[in-house]
Specification:
two-stranded parallel ribbon, alpha/beta, Rossmann fold, three-stranded parallel sheet
Length: 224
């Protein structure tokens, strides 16, 4: 194997307050075990690139959503609760922003890495040991929508699509969570011509259609 692409996460930015998050930012302050494991993945991949010449590309995903998503993710949980008449838990009183990124935009970059593997930067040492490149054939990229959305606005789009007012329980922010994620995708665009193109409205619409079909649920509006 000469070319490896792997999933990292926006969580590596920890408590970074400089927005948007850039791959040149420091990522040595993780605030959750999950974030620490993702940063560890990046460090191990870089070591393999240095030792064995394997081209490794880390993709820092920002809040992925869409059909066939994980059941423990927010949109999946919110949709299930709404259709069951249950309330949802909304942390930090809803004062959170996420750079929600639709799965098809993620897929486009993953496929692009196949023909565009990471390359070593021959000027790395001469340019002051840049954090955005390496003397080894290793690289990391942000894969986000470059457009943070307030969590309550996100829920509002879901409510409109379902035609349901969702009951909410507002709770404090969870330990290890952050208030905002926001991806700088300039480096990703330069390498892969990546420009996210999916709006929250379109993405949630596609997810709900998939969810109702997959679980064979009749849309609430059709029951009236």
């Amino acid at each position: 194997m000469n070319n490896l692409s792997y999933a990292s996460s926006s969580s590596v930015y920890g408590l970074n307050k400089k927005y948007p998050f850039s791959v040149t930012d420091q990522t040595d302050h993780p605030i959750s075990i999950y974030a620490a494991t993702k940063k560890s993945n990046e460090l191990m991949a870089h070591s393999y690139s240095h030792l064995f010449g394997i081209q490794t590309t880390g993709l820092r995903f920002f809040t992925v959503y869409g059909p066939w998503g994980r059941p423990d993710m927010a949109l999946f949980k919110f949709t299930k609760a709404a259709l069951s008449g249950e309330k949802i838990e909304v942390y930090h009183d809803g004062n959170m922003f996420r750079d929600f990124t639709y799965v098809d935009d993620i897929k486009a970059v993953i496929l692009a890495t196949i023909d565009n593997p990471a390359e070593a930067d021959p000027d790395w040492e001469n340019e002051g040991f840049k954090t955005s490149s390496s003397s080894a054939p290793a690289a990391v990229y942000n894969i986000g929508n470059n457009n943070p959305v307030n969590l309550l606005d996100f829920i509002g789009v879901l409510e409109k699509k379902l035609g349901i007012k969702i009951e909410k329980e507002f709770l404090p922010i969870q330990p290890g969570d952050v208030e905002k994620t926001y991806a700088d995708v300039d480096k990703t665009y330069q390498k892969f011509s990546y420009k996210p193109s999916t709006s929250i409205e379109y993405g949630i619409d596609r997810f709900v259609e998939w969810y109702l079909d997959f679980y064979e649920i009749i849309h609430p509006s059709d029951l009236k």
